[in-house]
């Protein structure tokens, strides 16, 4: 159970400096059962003492599926499981106690970016910032450095070897599409022109590396569950309605994927309530009710999780969930001028505790609660905090706009800036480095 695990560990080893490399995996890593149980237990007690509050939160917060008293047991058994099973695709292991999501941005002119914008033909015009006149390029040169270890360096050939005969699939919204495209950009350079293809059919986009019989795919499902925003091209933006229990319509297309990377958040952030529907969109009399956004989010995530439990074999596959991608709409949040937003921002935020008031902590708590009930390993890509710092990395006005911009807006560029999506190359390449690290060095 990665979520709880990585959080506890980060309290356990607060920003300890360690050797900057990943340990190779010893072939026979099977610690004795009792020893590992005792170690885990004492570890938990130690952490509880160290960080009482969070521990109490984890223990006492009502879980969705398990009745109260079983939670401590569950924590223990999840950790035990992790000690004993080597995750699918693992070729090494993370430096012990290093939480790769906690760290800092280092300016690195030499190794970043990992590819040039014009060298990757797959980036959609909404993300090619240089081609749309962005005057600065510093945002491409930041490298993520976790406290206490270094990320393994991304090896495209190795990744393709590992994906031989396999399907890696991203499922979610436009931010997840950005991560998918970043992954394609990171991999395509080592594949000759004649041995790759990219095709879109409706909600599904598939990049193929033919010599490897590998595919990297993106499936559009902004709520994961069925909704009235499901059309891949003309999404309905206003008056969103979701069917929180209906997963199969989309999930039938995920079946057979070897690695799944989910995200969903942005589309839920449209007021405190969410319209949910029982029955089908084709019913004549529609039964639509409004419930709290957090409750709707929780129900949808549970639907996804139950599907994963029934359809993904933990011995052969891996499942990831990327936490919320933050936006930067108000420069006064980071102590800048009153009126600004991400427009004209060229450097990351330095305050390590920065968290935008617009990024919902209650939605994060829902993630924590729901995934703590998971009966299968679900690895969290907790990219929220590290992305919070990157006010400089959004597409701003340097992108293909959806329509003509009225003259009064043109006169004030920040009024039509996009402070949600991210330029490529850029921040989302780091999300993939983190995915790479969690996949091969868990
Ligand atoms: C990348 O991986 C390939 C295949 O495993 C290996 O041959 C190559 O040496 C690696 N490259 C680097 C720079 O480590
Ligand atoms: C190619 O990969 C798919 C899975 O994506 C698999 O079902 C199929 O058997 C593979 N074909 C060959 C020739 O290896
Ligand atoms: C697109 O996908 C649908 C199934 O989802 C399939 O029936 C159809 O043949 C596909 N079209 C193309 C052009 O591949
Ligand atoms: C409408 O859905 C709610 C649950 O959201 C349910 O309690 C209610 O019975 C349903 N009404 C009808 C007429 O089906
Ligand atoms: C953008 O920032 C530069 C300095 O970094 C400043 O001179 C310029 O006025 C700013 N432009 C706007 C529109 O805020
Ligand atoms: C993700 O990390 C942040 C801190 O960086 C933490 O507050 C949050 O609880 C984590 N989310 C989950 C679901 O563990």
List keywords for this structure.
four-stranded mixed beta sheet, binds 2-acetamido-2-deoxy-beta-D-glucopyranose, alpha/beta, 442 residues, 17% strand, globular, seven-stranded mixed beta sheet, 12 helices, Rossmann fold
Map the helices and strands.
Elements (H helix, E strand, L loop, with lengths): L1 H11 L10 E2 L8 H18 L1 H9 L10 H14 L7 E2 L9 E5 L34 E5 L9 H7 L4 E6 L1 H15 L7 E6 L2 E6 L4 E7 L5 E2 L13 E3 L4 H4 L7 E5 L9 E6 L8 E6 H19 L6 E5 L38 H11 L7 E3 L2 H5 L5 E3 L10 H4 L7 E5 L4 H14 L2
Parallel strand pairs: 5-8, 5-11, 10-12, 11-14, 14-15
Antiparallel strand pairs: 1-2, 3-4, 6-7, 7-8, 9-10, 12-13, 16-17
Helix pairs in contact: 1-2, 2-3, 2-4, 6-12, 8-9
The structure holds 2-acetamido-2-deoxy-beta-D-glucopyranose (6 copies).
Would you kindly provide a brief summary of this structure?
The protein has 442 residues and is α/β, with parallel strands linked by helices.
Verbal overview:
The chain has 442 residues and is α/β, with parallel strands linked by helices. It has one domain (42-440): Rossmann fold, CATH 3.40.50. The protein contains 12 helices and 17 strands. Strand 12 (273-278) and strand 13 (287-292) form a beta hairpin. Helix 2 crosses helix 4 (71-84). The longest helix is centred in the C-terminal third of the chain and has 19 residues, at 293-311. It is globular and about 50 Å long. The site of one 2-acetamido-2-deoxy-beta-D-glucopyranose has 5 residues, from loops.
